[in-house]
């Protein structure tokens, strides 16, 4: 039976609103947990509960009566406390703040320093699975960001072509991540204690550039080649410096997990799209999406 009473932390971030909107559209009872008590921009149908995230009692009180708890918070070191509170409150399913690279199924990705917090959360959930079930959602780079922020293609300047640009990778729209979360809650048994994978498209950078030129013949693609092996080497070197640029290094590790061959970043042949209600886009629809971004 589907979970219907759902709480979410991190609902006002970059991804959270897309999850909340889809849950409300599908008729879930959604409670947004927030430290400020402010949930402006979210649907009026939600319940907003102001809590003290540093207080276990406050968390447990807010979670009592909830069937599932979704974490969309950026601070992964805070997730074990959320899991403990969910267990104490009798919550049945925890969906941690994964929503990205293939940490579940690829050891090279798991070893990247940027994902240490997510790895610890996965291990913590597996250790607690006799007390609470979990689902780990992998969706690759948000397609909206890949286009809007220039990681997949840059419509405003030079596109950094990672290695040869021909490798195909999985990308997912923020709205489809919302659909996938709803799908998990609608299929609790099929998604219990495992990783699930969704994608809106499987695409290479060169394919994306060709589509962009097709929908806008005036677009003149500027590119520069990036050697991801060197990027990875430089990122580790930056970490070893006394005053290294940690933020830049961590972003480079994320890029490696998304684009480097061998890092488990394509799941077009085996995914959970059908189960979770993610339909994907045709090439024409991808073109429409890119055209709107010019």
TrEMBL record:
A single GO molecular function term of this UniProt record: oxidoreductase activity
InterPro entries to which the protein is assigned, alphabetical: NAD(P)-bd_dom_sf, NmrA-like, NmrA/Isoflavone_reductase-like, PCBER-like
Keywords carried by this UniProt record: NADP, Oxidoreductase
Pfam families for the chain: NmrA (PF05368)
Name of the protein this chain belongs to: NmrA-like domain-containing protein
SUPFAM superfamilies given in the database record: NAD(P)-binding Rossmann-fold domains (SSF51735)
Domain (NmrA-like): residue spans on this chain: 4-227
């Amino acid at each position: 039976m589907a979970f219907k009473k759902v709480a979410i932390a991190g609902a006002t971030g970059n991804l959270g609103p897309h999850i909340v909107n889809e849950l409300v559209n599908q008729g879930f009872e959604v409670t947004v947990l927030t430290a400020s008590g402010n949930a402006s921009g979210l649907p009026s149908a939600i319940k907003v509960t102001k809590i003290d995230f540093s207080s276990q009692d406050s968390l447990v009180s807010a979670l009592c009566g909830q069937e599932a708890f979704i974490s969309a918070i950026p601070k992964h070191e805070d997730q074990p406390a959320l899991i403990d509170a969910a267990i104490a409150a009798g919550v049945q399913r925890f969906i941690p703040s994964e929503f990205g690279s293939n940490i579940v199924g690829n050891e090279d990705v798991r070893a990247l320093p940027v994902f240490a917090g997510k790895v610890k959360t996965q291990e913590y959930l597996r250790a607690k699975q006799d007390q609470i079930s979990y689902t780990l959602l992998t969706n690759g780079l948000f397609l909206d960001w890949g286009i809007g922020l220039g990681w997949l293609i840059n419509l405003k300047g030079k596109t950094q072509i990672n290695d040869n640009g021909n490798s195909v990778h999985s990308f997912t729209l923020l709205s489809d991540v919302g659909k996938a979360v709803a799908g998990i809650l609608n299929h609790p048994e099929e998604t219990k204690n495992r990783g699930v994978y969704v994608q809106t498209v499987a695409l290479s950078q060169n394919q994306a550039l060709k589509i962009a030129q097709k929908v806008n013949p005036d677009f003149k693609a500027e590119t520069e080649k990036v050697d991801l092996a060197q990027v990875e080497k430089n990122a580790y070197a930056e970490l070893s410096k006394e005053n290294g640029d940690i933020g830049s290094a961590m972003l480079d590790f994320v890029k490696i997990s998304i684009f480097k061959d061998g890092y488990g970043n394509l799941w077009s042949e085996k995914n959970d799209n059908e189960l979770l209600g993610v339909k994907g886009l045709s090439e024409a629809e991808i073109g429409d999406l890119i055209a709107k971004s010019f």
